[in-house]
């Protein structure tokens, strides 16, 4: 039984991962209801359900039928005893958002989220805010927060007016992390209402990378990508193991982690007030797919290497070389996760002379090899789109899982 919504891209990605696992390994028969419904529980016995995957169900621990293996997917960090739990790494989401906006040159920061959230959502939002604030504080900056006490029940125009007033009070230019893509879209509409240009006055970064929501933004919205498809795949794998050997599954948590920031035009501005620093950051951004010597960055910025280095450390918080490496490894990570390009091809696209140098470069920044990163964070081992799932093509991830079974207690997606 699947009690999972399909209204958001993250929900559909989760279902995609579950479907991929079933087609490859289990051949399950599904009863799917898009959301938790009281009318669904009586059907558990009549349908002879062998397992359940349900979405953030509030008091799910009390509602789940006894003796049936279950996976609960939710934005929570507390574990529901007796079942497999899928949670998001909210601290990592906040950190990644802060690092991205800092790299864009913003020095004023804010976090915003819709009000009237459930207890689980509120805890998730607080954790994102805390980690986001910590990252910008390490760079000597402060973060403001806007989480209205009332949002869902009030007219949209009133919500945007409230947001617009808050945005006008932020020091400009400001980098804003929204708790979701949907709320990020509201922030961008509020910017129009306030007469604030995106990304020049306000850079807006969402969470979940819903391509439809982000693409409809004006300009298109940057977003933190979370691998929900892989989370769905591993949730299905965990449920399969629980149904086969209920006593052998000791693990209880699968973590859905952010993989990268999908940068679009809503943060595509170098917001540094120092024009030399802005030119340097823009050059690093534009040359991300090519090796870029530090001396060339300094020449492009119109300063000596020593002078530019001092400004980087004072304003960005790290060296020129570290910024080049961060940008390039972010791009490599994106290609590893989002594409099926062979690793040798990615190395060539990124301007490396050989795969060995490419692997050392990536491992030096991420402390993991490119192949291991793809196995860990790729959408799901050996899976494609729904139209491709029947094609049983050999994939590194599938073989790796067969040779080295994943310990579920520390499974990170």
List the main descriptive attributes of the protein structure presented here:
413 residues, alpha/beta, Rossmann fold, Arc Repressor Mutant, subunit A, 17 helices, 11 strands, globular
What do these coordinates show?
The protein has 413 residues and is an alpha/beta fold. Helices cover 47% and strands 12% of the residues. It is built from 17 helices and eleven strands. The strands form two sheets. Strands 6-5-7-8-9-11 form a six-stranded mixed sheet, sandwiched between helices. The chain has a five-stranded parallel sheet with strand order 1-2-3-4-10, covered by helices on one side. Strand 7, helix 7 (181-194) and strand 8 (202-207) form a beta-alpha-beta unit. Helix 6 crosses helix 7 (181-194). It starts with a strand and ends in a 10-residue tail after the last helix.
Strand proportion:
5-15%
The total count of strands amounts to 11
Taking all residues together, what is the mean pLDDT? 82
- CATH level-two architecture of the largest domain: 3-Layer(aba) Sandwich
Q: What distance lies between the first and last C-alpha atoms, to the nearest angstrom?
A: 23 Å
Q: List the helices and strands in order.
A: EHHEHEEHEHEHEHEHEHEEHHHHHHHH
The radius of gyration computed from the alpha-carbon positions, rounded to a whole number of angstroms, is 22 Å
Write down the domain tally: 3
At CATH level 3, the topology of the largest domain is Rossmann fold
Relative helix content: 40-55%
Q: Which segments are poorly predicted (pLDDT under 50) over 5 or more consecutive residues?
A: 383-413
* Fourth-level CATH superfamily of the largest domain: Response regulator
User: Biggest sheet, strands in spatial order?
Assistant: 6-5-7-8-9-11
Structural class: alpha/beta
Spatial shape: globular
Distinct helical segment count: 17
CATH class of the largest domain: Alpha Beta
Q: What summary fits the major beta sheet?
A: 6 strands, mixed
């Amino acid at each position: 039984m699947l009690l999972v919504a399909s209204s958001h891209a993250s929900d559909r990605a989760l279902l995609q991962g579950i479907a991929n696992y079933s087609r490859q390994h289990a051949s399950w028969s599904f009863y799917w209801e898009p959301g938790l419904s009281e009318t669904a529980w009586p059907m558990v016995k009549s349908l002879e359900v062998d397992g359940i995957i349900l979405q953030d169900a509030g008091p799910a621990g009390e509602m789940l039928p006894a003796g049936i293996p279950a996976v609960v997917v939710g934005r929570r960090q507390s574990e529901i005893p007796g079942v497999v739990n899928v949670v998001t790494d909210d601290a990592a989401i906040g950190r990644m958002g802060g690092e991205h906006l800092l790299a864009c040159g913003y020095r004023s920061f804010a976090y915003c989220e819709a009000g009237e959230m459930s207890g689980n959502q509120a805890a998730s939002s607080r954790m994102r805010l805390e980690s986001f604030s910590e990252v910008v504080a390490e760079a000597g900056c402060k973060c403001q927060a806007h989480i209205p006490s009332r949002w869902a029940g009030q007219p949209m125009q009133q919500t945007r007016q409230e947001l617009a007033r808050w945005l006008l009070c932020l020091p400009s230019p400001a980098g804003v992390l929204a708790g979701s893509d949907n709320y990020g879209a509201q922030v961008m509409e509020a910017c129009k209402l306030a007469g604030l240009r995106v990304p020049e006055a306000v850079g807006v970064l969402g969470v979940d990378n819903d391509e439809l929501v982000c693409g409809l933004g004006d300009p298109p919205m940057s977003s933190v990508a979370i691998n929900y498809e892989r989370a769905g795949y591993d949730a299905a794998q965990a449920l399969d193991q629980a149904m086969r050997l209920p006593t052998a599954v000791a693990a209880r948590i699968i973590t859905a982690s952010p993989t990268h920031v999908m940068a679009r035009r809503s943060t595509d501005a170098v917001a540094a007030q120092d024009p030399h620093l802005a030119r340097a950051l823009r050059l690093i951004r534009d040359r991300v797919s090519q090796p870029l010597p530090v001396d060339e960055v300094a020449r492009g910025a119109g300063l000596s290497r020593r002078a530019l280095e001092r400004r980087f450390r004072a304003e960005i918080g790290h060296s020129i070389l570290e910024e080049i490496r961060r940008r390039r490894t972010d791009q490599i990570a994106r290609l590893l996760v989002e594409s099926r390009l062979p690793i040798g091809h990615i190395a060539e696209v990124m301007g490396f002379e050989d795969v060995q140098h490419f692997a050392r470069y990536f491992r030096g920044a991420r402390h993991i090899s490119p192949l291991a990163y793809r196995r860990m964070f790729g959408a799901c081992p050996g899976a494609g789109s729904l139209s491709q799932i029947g094609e049983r093509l050999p994939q590194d991830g599938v073989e790796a899982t067969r040779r080295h079974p994943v310990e579920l207690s520390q499974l990170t997606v």
